[in-house]
Amino acid sequence: MKWITNLFKKPEEVVPVVEPEVKARISRKAKLSEKELATANKEPYIKVLDTQIDPKNPANGYFELDWNSYFIDELRKSGYNANTEEEIIDKWFKALCQNVIAEDDNNREIRIV
User: Please, which residues have CB within 8 angstroms of residue 106's CB and are 6 or more apart in sequence?
Assistant: First the structure.
């Protein structure tokens, strides 16, 4: 019945009417993490959770990644295959790093060794 009372109110007094099931859906989505939200929407998700560098040898370290099954599906469609999701992610990440290095080498005129 709020919609009836809203008809006679001034625009600044109008209270939005939200159906209970819509409210519940909005509330659930508001509580979801980025990954859960992407998964609920059937979207690929990848995120760097942590980066650790060896202070004695900065060339050594690692990235901690998090992903969902939709990201794995996208990688498989792009030709990345392996026995486990971790192996697929490892192949993709190595290829990504190699492409960054190759792009840097192609754009560098002077190389300092």
Answer: none
